[in-house]
Amino acid sequence: MAVTDLTSGQVRRFARPHTAAVLLALAALLALAKPALPEFLTRVPGWAVLPYDVWMQGLFDFIKDDLGLIHVTRTISAGLEWLLDITANLLYGKNRWPYLGPIPWTAVAAVAAVTGYALKGWRMALLAGGTFVWVALVGQWEIAMQTMSVIAVAAPVAALAGLLLGLAAWKFPRFERALMPLLAVFQTLPFFTYLLPAVIFFKVGPTAGCVATVVYAVPPMVLMTALGLKKVSSEVVEAGHMSGSTRWQMLRHVYIPSARTELLVGVNQVIMLSLAMVVLTAFIGMPGLGAKLLSLMNSLKLGRSFEIGVTIVLIAVTLDRCSKAWVVKQPEHFERGTPWWRRNQVLLIGIAAFLGFLFVAQFVQVADHIKRDQDFSIGAEIDGVIRAILSNKAITGVTEWLRWFLITWVLIPFRNGLLWLPTASVVLAAAAAGHFVGGRRSALLAGAFFGIVALTGWWDRSIITLYAVISAVVLAALIGLPLGILAARRKKWAEPILLVCDTAQTFPSFVYLIPAIMLFGVNDVSVVFAIFIFATVPLMRYTIEGIRAVPEELLEAADMSGATRRQKLLKVQLPLALPTMAVGFNQAIMFAFFMVIIAAFIGTQDLGQELQKTLAGNQLGKNFVLGMCVALMALSFDHIIMRWSANRRRALGVF
Fold first, then answer.
1. How far is CA 238 from CA 230, 235, 259, 263, 341, in A?
2. What is the band of 6 on the pLDDT scale with cuts at 50, 70, 90?
3. Which residue of 158, 168, 312, 426 has the fewest C-beta atoms within 10 A of its own C-beta?
4. Count of Cβ atoms closer than 10 Å to residue 338 Cβ
5. What percent of the chain has pLDDT over 70?
6. Of 166, 535, 108, 100, nearest to 318 (Cα)?
7. How far apart, in whole angstroms, are the C-alpha atoms of residue 64 and residue 70?
């Protein structure tokens, strides 16, 4: 019996790679035999393409008009518009109720500095206050406040919605099982897919931008809320019950305080995603930093674009650092009988600073607002410097040769090769990868996802999108992985590189287009270069974290066995770090799928370009189908890589 069990176990162990190899061999055979294949195996014929866009358009029209959802959304739109008018009036002086704005820039900067000090001392105060001083002095206060006025509404609404959905997911397992796949899809949908429905249901401008931002930012708050509440220890829960707490008291005084860290991490993610999305809503008429950056990049004013980019980055870093400091800062407790003014000392200082600068601004014009002839903007000068640098023959010689080499010998041949492959070969290759890591179910899932993409009629555009993603991620791996390994093995390099990674992750995606256009112009190299910069960050970060997480006992055992540094790396550190590195690789691919849609602004021939075109009309069905193609390809990679990582962790006994 034991022999039978062992034999069947071996069969199960080797059946999966064997079947995957058969599927891969069949895919290669179909590719080699392409000239002799019938048309339906090379490309899905026109008569077999399913009219998903027509079906989806009909469904959306039915929901919008026949069910009357448009009237509900317009009512919600009116409420959001009222909130946006309040924040706009306070921050940049839109003449609506409550007719109190705009708040002077000095008062905002002072409150930001006091808040930073309360969260993490004088360094954070300098960052927070200095950011708003910069914004005012370079003459970007109004457009920055247009952006902040939307974030001030979108982030709290998204956090509250995510909290409520997370509570429901934690309380009702069936709801969680239904919700989690939807959140996975939402997190892989390209941002253009959020914009058109927002425009149709909520009108062009700040209201539509706010709605798109809320929907985009909700998923991480839901996930972190459910995770935090599940992690509350049973001992804490039992203590709450023993004290006679009601269900509401248990939630308010036991569960939520115990899950405080996870909830605040969710809030941090909401804030960062809100800033990233509100910049991108420039495509649907949202004023602010994104709209200004878009118009400047359209006219190739790269110096001024760089200045706007610095402002966006500073605001992003400030919001990120302050919200992270809020996560780690524990509530402060005072002894009974402490005077109220001592308990609220920082709050009182903030109010005093706000009122003081508000008073000064009534008499000193510069303290109230900076006029155009008073700012320190050097965008035109930066334009001149960039032109001088790019006209340098040494630099242009290198970039032109690199552009020629990559386009002629790498990118275009790779793109043409992928386009040449029969559709059936690509679907079978995806199924083979799925079967290798997860068996029959994963094979069916990966193959079905690519099969659905083929049936939409957008196969070639999808393959061009895939080509840009794969090219950029391979390039990022070739550079990011060695740098990550090098940094992980030298402590003095690890912290600076992690700091760079943390900072780079706060950059809005538009910023990465600036160096790409500056160096390579408008072509495929710029697209791949922008994606490469964006995707390198998670690869480096997770490589460093994975290698540094290897237990010291194992490293000491390797040293005692006489292993060299190279042997220790190849035999101990990398094998144990691979599951974590796989997560970084997965994140790089997800980032690349996101960035390739942004890169449509440069001028591509992929799904991003088609998605951008749908914004000009009422093509909601086509918009959703194109977004679904991107999401399905991204979900295929996500499933395969994360399944492999889980298998590897299980084999290593690391959970």
1. 14, 5, 16, 22, 37
2. very low
3. 168
4. 10
5. 97
6. 108
7. 5
